[in-house]
Amino acid sequence: MATNSSSPVAIASAKLQRATETVLRSIAIDALALGAGMTLPKGDSYRERLGVGAGTVQQAFQILATAEALTTQSRGHLGRQIVESRIDRLWQIAELDPVRLVLPPRGPLEVRAMAEFSATSFRRLDIPYAIAHRRGASERIDAVRAGDADVAIVSSGVAAQLVGANDPDLEQLVHAEGTFYAPNRLLVLGGEGRRVAIDSNSWDQRRLTELEFPEEEGFEYVEVDFPRVPVEILRGNVDVGIWHEMQTLISPTLAGLHVRQPRRAATHTMLEQSSAAVMLVSKARPELQSVLGSLHNRDFARRVSELTSLPDDSPELLDLFWTV
Predict the structure, then answer these.
(1) Among 283, 271, 288, which residue's Cα sits nearest to residue 204?
(2) Which single residue of 41, 45, 176, 182 could bond 301 by disulfide (Cβ 3.0 to 4.6 Å)?
(3) CA dist., res. 292 & res. 125, Å (int)
(4) 3-state DSSP helix/strand/coil percent for the chain, to nearest 5?
(5) Which residues form the Uncharacterised protein YhfZ C-terminal domain (predicted)?
């Protein structure tokens, strides 16, 4: 005989199902946030926090184990230690939103490597994601603070100066040196004139410009979006400017511009301190901590090295999507 959907049995069954789903999602998020080897909260914590019984918590752990999403080992009164987890299955069980990343604008090969590394990593984990590009490190940081993005990528110099180690909203995941500014990719274009291009919206470009061309030595700053430095020099609007080398159809050298490395020790020191890419992760998405920490970060550095080592006439550098 069929059970009426409004009968006490049906109502109790539905409540149990909802309670179990709530516990499943909570455990899955905790497991993603903590990672393998760490200890999950004790069963009492889930019961008190979610208002469920011990049997419901136990059933949730059994479901996760049967689904091969989470393997744990009991540590008695300490809780359960995570032995193994499947990130993709935990993500689906937790019904989490896609990961929203905001990167610097297209053009530099390092940014191309960031985007390719991120996309490949999240596809490998079967986690939905969305990648956007936005000018200005401050703008990208603000997007995460406002909840419009989950991860922003900035230079290590920006992370140190604008975020700091104990930020209440953001966690930092630091990549290898040379992943934001690869060696010899930060250039000075133009001659020896006094009119210097400066981009107030780019924290790195502005500070590097102030160090390489101090205003007190008679240099005059002219506001220019840093990707347009070569264009503004060729137009005669500025004489010189610092430029992060980009994937262009016509290189500055081919256009007849003088190209050199920065000369001042202070500029080189700041560049060294800023060369690593840093992922700033929203603390409102705790499940991202171990997920991002599990990425194969050496692949990122390797891809940067591969791209920046290609000859100028490489077919791979003719991809118009990445060309500015």
Answers:
(1) 271
(2) 176
(3) 10
(4) 45, 20, 35
(5) 89-297
Asked if 281 contacts 153 with a C-beta cutoff of 8 angstroms, the reply is no
**Residue ranges in 35-181 assigned as alpha helix (H):** 43-50, 54-66, 87-94, 109-125, 137-145, 156-158
pLDDT digits (tens, 9 = 90+) for 163-209: 988 899 999 999 999 999 999 999 999 988 999 999 999 999 999 99
Tell me the pLDDT of the chain averaged across its residues: 91
Strand partners, 174: 278
Write the pLDDT tens digit of every residue in 224-275. 999 999 999 999 999 999 999 999 888 899 999 999 999 999 999 999 999 9
Section 100-125 average pLDDT: 95
The amino acid occupying position 279 is M
| Every domain range in the chain assigned CATH 3.40.190.10 | 99-180+275-318, 186-266
- CATH superfamily for 186-266 is Periplasmic binding protein-like II (3.40.190.10)
CATH of domain 8-94: 1.10.10.10
Contacts of 170 (CB under 8 A, 6+ apart): 141, 144, 145, 163, 280, 281, 282, 283
Q: Which of 168, 160, 102 is nearest to 131 (CA)?
A: 102
Looking only at the bridges linking them, the beta strands covering 195-198 and 220-223 are parallel
| CB distance 173 to 278 below 8 Å | yes
Residue 67 burial class via C-beta count within 10 angstroms: exposed 0-12, middle 13-18, buried 19 and up: middle
For the record, the structure tokens of 118 come out as 């991120």
Under a CB-based contact definition with an 8 Å cutoff, are residues 140 and 252 in contact?
no
Q: Is the pTM of this model over 0.90?
A: no
Domain 99-180+275-318 has CATH 3.40.190.10: yes
